[in-house]
Amino acid sequence: MHIDISPNKQELGRRAATAGAAEIRSAIATSGSANVIVATGASQFDTLDQLIQQPDIDWSKVMFFHLDEYAGMPDTHPASFRRYLKERLVDRLPKAPAAFHYVQAEGDLAAECKRLGALIQQHPIDVAFIGIGENGHLAFNDPPADFKTQEPYIVVKLDDACRRQQHGEGWFKTLEEVPTEAISMSINHILRSRKIICSVPDERKAAAVANCVEGPITPNAPASILQSHHHTTLYLDEPAASRLTKRRN
């Protein structure tokens, strides 16, 4: 894992997007297309904003996969990750992507996991844009995360810390409104990505960052598994990096 520390979240977004765009261009040049995972949440605002501005990418050759979605969440809800991605990424691209495979979590969750799993197994991921939660989660794999399953998508329970984060970021009016279940890409499938771009701004993530970077690899700190992925870069701003004892910028 490489650590890149920026002075602020805007510069973090620029660096993360620039690196990710280079990977997308490389994949298109090598194989004629690129397969990309994108995350949501407040941590991804600047990275996605910068990504859509990157030059010389033929977006019509890019296939996107979605990391997670709340169970029973309609895409009309302000907290819907499908809505987030449509508004913040897809609708702002200069050219429509080859495809965008959203997580549709309003019906049979097991059937949706199977549908998405079959799709993504046919398209090895070139670059994954992800984040880390306040509780150290990757996607919605809250602690203790399942490090063993090989299924690409799984149904997960959301812990109290995760639900408090979603409420605290303003996505829901009350904590009680935050769903308790979701569909999430599994830890092992995230790790199958050739390159991982992990954007983590803000001081509220500092404890999780320190645990995941400098602590042991453990399901109790799900993002610690990124230590085992040799092509991960963790993009931090100064507040998010504030608890690291060893800075590797």
What do you see in this structure?
It is a single chain. The protein is α/β, with parallel strands linked by helices and 249 residues long. It has one domain (2-237): Rossmann fold. Helices cover 29% and strands 19% of the residues. The chain has seven helices and ten strands. The protein has helices spanning 9-31, 45-51, 81-88, 109-120, 160-168, 187-191, 206-214; strands at 2-6, 34-38, 62-66, 68-70, 99-101, 127-130, 153-157, 181-185, 195-200, 232-237. Strands 1-10-9-6-2-3-5 form a seven-stranded parallel β-sheet, covered by helices on one side. Helix 1 packs across helix 2 (45-51). The radius of gyration is 17 Å and the shape is globular.
How far the N terminus sits from the C terminus, by CA atoms, comes to 11 Å
Largest sheet: 7 strands, parallel
Based on secondary structure, the structural category is alpha/beta
Annotation field: number of helices: 7
In terms of per-residue confidence, which ranges show pLDDT below 50 for 5 or more consecutive residues? none
The first-level CATH class is given as Alpha Beta
Provide the domain count.
1
CATH-defined architecture: 3-Layer(aba) Sandwich
Can you list the strand order of the major beta sheet? 1-10-9-6-2-3-5
Radius of gyration: 17 Å
Structural shape: globular
- Helix content estimate: 25-40%
Average of per-residue pLDDT values: 95
Total count of strands: 10
Along the chain, the helix and strand elements come as EHEHEEHEHEEHEHEHE
